[in-house]
Amino acid sequence: MPVQVQGEVLSVRKVGAYNAMTVVAPGMAELTRPGHFVAVQVGGPESSMLLRRAFAIYDVKERGVYGGTVEFIFSVHGKGTAWLAARRPQDKLDLVGPLGKPFRLPAERVNATLVGGGYGSAPLLPLASSLRERGCRVDFVLGAGDQHRLFGQLDAKRIATSIEVTTDDGSQGRKGRVSDVLPELLDRAASDVVYACGPMAMLKAVTEICTARGIPCQVAVEESMACGVGVCMTCVLPVVGDDGLTRMVRSCVEGPVFLGDRVRWDDVGTVPEDVVGSITAGTGH
Amino acid sequence: MTLRPELTKTEVTVRKREEVFTRPDVDLTTRLGGVTFPNPVFTASGCAAAGQELDQFFDVSELGGVVTKSIMLAPRSGRPTPRMAETPSGMVNSIGLQGPGIDAFLDKDLAWLAQRGARAVVSIAGGSVDEYAKLAAKLRGQKGLAMIEVNISCPNVEDRGQVFACDPVASAAVVQAVKRAAPTGVPVFAKLSPDVTDITEIARACVDAGADGLSLINTLLGMVIDTHTLRPALGGVTGGLSGPAIRPVAVRCVWQVRQALPEVPILGMGGIRTGLDALEFLLAGANAVSVGTTVFGDPSAPIRILDELAVALAERGFGSVSEVVGLAHRPPDVHVPEGPDPVGDLVIEEDE
Ligand SMILES: Cc1cc2nc3c(=O)[nH]c(=O)nc-3n(C[C@H](O)[C@H](O)[C@H](O)COP(=O)(O)OP(=O)(O)OC[C@H]3O[C@@H](n4cnc5c(N)ncnc54)[C@H](O)[C@@H]3O)c2cc1C
Ligand SMILES: Cc1cc2nc3c(=O)[nH]c(=O)nc-3n(C[C@H](O)[C@H](O)[C@H](O)COP(=O)(O)O)c2cc1C
Ligand code: FES
Questions:
Q1: Pairs across A and B, CB distance < 8 A
Q2: Does B12 contact A8 at a Cβ distance shorter than 8 Å?
Q3: Contact: A8, B72; criterion CB under 8 Å
Q4: Does A6 touch chain B (CB under 8 A)?
């Protein structure tokens, strides 16, 4: 169950191309699991930006000198994130979280491969720690456009058995995409499960590789969201349910973590004809 | 690195209303079509689902009522994404009335609202007069149902050509059919679109057809083009504009309808963000208000706005909501207590 908290900025740091923001937000840390996200009000109380911005939660501390904190990693994309990047310690920030369904953890000790694209690695790092605590083997693939947009390499090295890095421009690691190195790694690490977070195209590619090998994968998607709490129906994508039927499901409450093979990647952005309640399927009028 | 600021735990307040606020003693009750509601703040259709999600942030039974997402007969998947674009002080949406259909809605959503003790205002939407009538009939004998809102004005529904709310005859036909089929004693409100030449004409047609009141206003038809992709930003191309950007349009509509039909109850909405915004609607002639888009940025907004409205009324020396409904229409020679001076709290102390 999420809480709404008037938080206070503790720090904003530059990390490569990203910003790391830590906010004192009592009551949120203890509820947070890897994969949860937080929705942040931007622009102040008189802002013309009405909608919250969603960010995956990177790190939480239940108790510190300052009370519980929540940290997220963000890139400046438009007006809202530019405003956020200009916050300074002690500025007030209204947060709602933790939101969404987190990554599900395996019951047994398994070999887990974690695939992060850009800032998508942020929620995977606390996940990796949780997996290690359960005795799982963890291997990482981190990819980004260039070296400045890789996030969490040092943390990943510390936690994981192995780490592979790819960049589109070859400025670090292997030149190419995470999907170029993933198949080989899955074999080498004898992976049982895969977790991924990053751009939709990457999640689709990872799902295809895993599905071909019969490896279950959980992916955290990023859909445009207006409310983040399940009341507006903007954040939907076509997902196949346990009954085999496709529905337009809300990624803010039923996701953002989904089983990769349940997402109809090729139909994202459309309402497929066979979806429950499709207008074209002739359901009533 | 900057030095860490001196923060103490007590400087950060978790938002828990009870700890910091007692509502002033003002009679907040309001009447809509023969039913008395405990206060005039409601959610807006499509901006609160069926209340459960918001109940995580505040007790939805404390509101005047919960207006549910417009429901249709059959399950409906809605429009393709992207379904929204943020605009200055507003947003444009094209959801396309995604929903589970009336049967699942009654079983799960309305049942939950009833059990929670909330007053449900069920919004219905159809593609034909007959569908509206069937929906209204389904509401007979349902627990928790306080009122029916007939969405004849949603601009982004693909209903094979007809937008009922733009035509007085079609609007009246829907209202009449709903009124006939609906359970007796439950007020039926018609929700109007502002995208018409004369909103009072549609309002009158609905009232003549039996509407117990009017909900004003639905979204304005709008559009955004993405200058990066060089295409329409929404999957549905056009969508409904909402939020504070449309507030003056909404206030104008409430004003005009109150003037034309002084006895007809009005549920006003459009960009309400604060208690003072709510007061503005009451002054224009609304008997109650709905809070829509603001909820997306602040899930506890409806209860905050209720608190702020109570304070605003008390500050102006009013003892009840009914005293202010339509008050802005009073003749120029009728004087009432004025609100606090906007800078009245600023006491400048002079040095001796
Ligand atoms: C579950 C989830 C987790 C996310 N995690 C991160 C993260 O860890 N780090 C990070 O940098 N970004 C993350 N994002 C993306 C981030 O929310 C957007 O970059 C941000 O909202 C852009 O806001 P803006 O005002 O700068 O851009 P604008 O384009 O001005 O935003 C306009 C509107 O569109 C919405 N919007 C625009 N782009 C996106 C997007 N990609 N996803 C969702 N909504 C969008 C905004 O919320 C806003 O309402 C996440 C998104 C989701 C849904
Ligand atoms: C995302 C969204 C969905 C909406 N869905 C409905 C709906 O299903 N039925 C309806 O009558 N109005 C719907 N509306 C309109 C609102 O109920 C309200 O009339 C309008 O948004 C103006 O109020 P606001 O500015 O406070 O949001 C919707 C509005 C938004 C923003
Ligand atoms: S963002 Fe509003 S329902 Fe998901």
A1: 172
A2: yes
A3: no
A4: yes
Q: For residue B271, which residues of chain A lie inside 8 Å, CB to CB?
A: none
Q: How confident is the model at residue B207 (pLDDT cuts 50, 70, 90)?
A: very high
Average pLDDT of chain B to the nearest whole number: 90
Q: How many CB atoms lie within 10 A of CB B345?
A: 7
- The pLDDT value recorded for residue A46 is 86
Residue A181 identity: V
A240 touches chain B (CB under 8 A): no
Predicted TM-score (pTM) of this structure = 0.93
Q: Which range has the worst mean pLDDT, A65-74, B38-47, B109-118?
A: A65-74
B5-345 maps to CATH 3.30.710.10: no
For β-strands B120-124 and B145-151, DSSP reports them as parallel
pLDDT at B157 (0 to 100):
46
**Closest residue to B81, CB basis, from A13, A236, A277:** A236
CA distance A119 to A126: 13
What is the SS3 assignment for A33?
coil
Best probe of the B interface among A231, A250, A263, by most B CBs < 10 A, is: A231
Predicted local distance difference test score (pLDDT) of residue B350: 44
Inform me whether the pLDDT recorded for A90 exceeds 80.
yes
| pLDDT tens digit sequence for B124-162 | 999 889 999 999 999 999 999 999 999 997 543 445 567
**Contact flag A41-B12 (C-beta cutoff 8 Å):** no
What's the whole-number average pLDDT of chain A? 94
How close are the terminal C-alpha atoms of chain B, in Å? 45
Residue A11 near residue A32, CB atoms below 8 Å: no
| Six token digits for residue A26 | 């009592």
Among A55, A224, A235, A247, say which to mutate for ligand 3: greatest number of ligand atoms within 8 Å of CB.
A235
The domains of chain B are located at 5-345
DSSP state of A110: -
Could you tell me if B163 and B174 are in contact, meaning their C-beta atoms sit under 8 angstroms apart? no
Q: Name the residue with the closest Cα to ligand 2, atom 5.
A: B46
ipTM over the 0.95 cut-off: no
Cα B103 to middle of ligand 2, angstroms: 22
Cβ distance A117 to A141 under 8 Å?
A: no
Around ligand 2, the residues with Cβ closer than 6 Å are A 232; B 44-47, 69-70, 93, 95, 97, 123, 151, 154, 191, 218-219, 240, 242-243, 246, 269-272, 291-294
B92 and B234 in contact (C-beta within 8 Å)?
A: yes
Residues 209-228 of A with CB under 8 A from B: 223-224, 226-227
Domains along chain A?
3-99 (2.40.30.10), 103-222 (3.40.50.80), 227-285 (no CATH)
- What lies within 8 Å, CB to CB, of A56 at 6+ separation is A35, A36, A37, A72, A73, A119, A120, A122, A123, A197, A220, A256
pLDDT at A278: 82
Q: Around Cβ A77, how many Cβ atoms within 10 Å?
A: 9
Chain B residues with CB-CB distance to A223 below 8 A: 81
Average pLDDT for A236-249? 96
